[in-house]
Design brief:
It contains 14 helices and 15 strands. By secondary structure, it is of the alpha/beta class. It has two domains: 143 residues, Alpha-Beta Complex (Aspartate Aminotransferase, domain 1), CATH 3.90.1150; 242 residues, Type I PLP-dependent aspartate aminotransferase-like (Major domain) (Aspartate Aminotransferase, domain 2), CATH 3.40.640. The strands form four sheets. The chain has a seven-stranded mixed sheet with strand order 2-10-9-8-7-3-4, sandwiched between helices. It has a four-stranded antiparallel sheet with strand order 11-12-15-14. A two-stranded parallel ribbon has the order 1-13. Helix 2 packs across helix 10, helix 4 packs parallel to helix 5 and helix 11 packs parallel to helix 14. Bound molecules: pyridoxal-5'-phosphate. The site of pyridoxal-5'-phosphate has 13 residues, from helix 4.
């Protein structure tokens, strides 16, 4: 008998929950706070820059493999300006088709069959698929909810214990989707020390670097011994609200960038030509852009977090990203479907016209995520207020 068409390493990755929930939102006319994309486009001048590039014939043909020089220079200037990190635009930067391709290419480049990858669970859904495609074995370290502190915590002992002789790399994400946790200086220092001690690479997904409301974002590459072993990933999708442009980047030591490029060139080779020129201009926007963007999102976070708390959820108020994780159990067994996030999310559009996603999809240990549900607040204030109004009916 013939094997099923899908490669068995990908068999567990069927249709994503986002597709199911977005379809449910469309069918029921519910407000979609499931998927994390802004409902307002990024700055007008950046859109104009893309139009100019298209009209002027910049990027309409294959751009250079590593990315257009203007964007590579802008990425380096950004890392220098915000974090004091110096990178060589010719040897230490690679432009990718969004952060997703950067993650996939980095995993394909660094992993061999059986290599173990430690990732912080719950994790962004492409990590598990990327590790599987590269033949690696994922080793989740679970971030635990601390209800009293209202945040998720990394247990550093658990992380240390997860490292074995087969561990090749740690796949980190801070600010963290979906929990909204921003790893602290102490946590990052401990991770850096562990990586150096055990001679591990780190791929660090920092796409929400400018969406930090409490505390600060500290790139892992700034810690002693880390610059040469860290692959840092950024994305214009999150920083400038152009998720459809798919422009991302990698910064790392030359040997690592060369390795990632070796894999990347056979995925897409290159992409997003004219958008690369526009993102180069975006990265040079004054600090005021970044501050205003963050402050606007902080207000939205507060409106949705307060609304969810008033509706009866236990709220993990995020320090960063544009997601709020909630615990549905305080809503009671009937509404929360006995704390089953899947059943709750499937019933929420009918019940009150809002779509969210169950955090269990981001876990290997699904039971750990069962009663948690994620809402996105990268939406217009009026949309969030409307959603909050609808969610009120849960409390009634
Ligand atoms: C943690 C994380 N990494 C990467 C991505 C994808 O970024 P891009 O759209 O640039 O591929 C997302 C998108 O939601 C994300 O949440």
């Amino acid at each position: 008998m013939k094997r099923p068409p899908l490669n068995r390493s990908l068999a567990e990755f069927g249709t994503t929950i986002f597709a199911e929930m977005s379809a449910l939102a469309a069918r029921t006319g519910a407000i979609n706070l499931g998927q994390g994309f802004p409902d307002t486009d990024g700055p007008e001048e950046v859109r104009e820059a893309a139009v100019r590039a298209l009209r002027d014939g910049r990027g309409n043909q294959y751009p250079p493999g590593p990315g257009v020089p203007e964007l590579r220079a802008a990425v380096c200037a950004h890392q220098q300006h915000w974090y004091g990190l110096e990178y060589d635009p010719d040897r230490e930067v690679l432009i990718t088709t969004g952060a997703t391709e950067a993650i996939a290419a980095a995993l394909l480049a660094l992993l061999e069959q059986g290599d173990e990858v430690i990732a912080l669970e719950p994790y962004y859904d492409s990590y598990a698929a990327g590790i599987a495609m590269a033949g690696g074995t994922r080793v989740p370290v679970t971030l635990r909810p601390d209800a009293e502190a209202g945040r998720y915590r990394l247990d550093l002992d658990e992380l240390r214990d997860a490292v074995t002789d087969d561990t090749r790399l740690i796949l980190l994400n801070t600010p963290h989707n979906p929990t909204g946790t921003v790893l602290s200086r102490e946590e990052l220092a401990a991770i850096a020390q562990l990586a150096c001690e055990r001679d591990l690479y780190v791929i660090t997904d920092e796409v929400y670097e400018h969406l930090v409301f409490d505390g600060e974002h500290i790139p892992l590459a700034t810690f002693p011994g880390m610059r040469e072993r860290t692959i840092t990933i950024g994305s214009a999708g999150k920083t400038f609200s152009f998720t459809g442009w798919k422009v991302g980047w990698v910064t790392a030591a030359p040997e690592l960038v060369t390795a990632v490029r070796s894999a990347k060139q056979f995925l897409t080779y290159v992409a997003s030509g004219p958008f690369q020129y526009a993102v180069a201009e975006a990265l040079a926007l004054p600090d005021a852009y970044y501050t205003a963007f963050r402050d606007d999102l902080a207000l939205k976070r507060d409106v949705l977090a307060d609304g969810l708390a008033a509706a009866g959820f236990a709220v993990y108020r995020p320090a960063g990203t544009y997601f709020i994780t909630t615990d549905i159990r305080p809503l009671g067994p009937e509404i929360s479907a006995d704390g089953d996030g899947f059943a709750f999310c499937r019933s929420l559009p009918e019940r009150c016209g809002v779509v969210a996603v169950p955090n269990a999809v981001f876990y290997d240990h699904r039971e750990q995520g069962a009663p948690f549900v994620r809402f996105a607040f990268c939406k217009q204030m009026s949309v969030l207020e409307h959603a909050v109004e609808r969610l009120k009916s849960l409390a009634a």
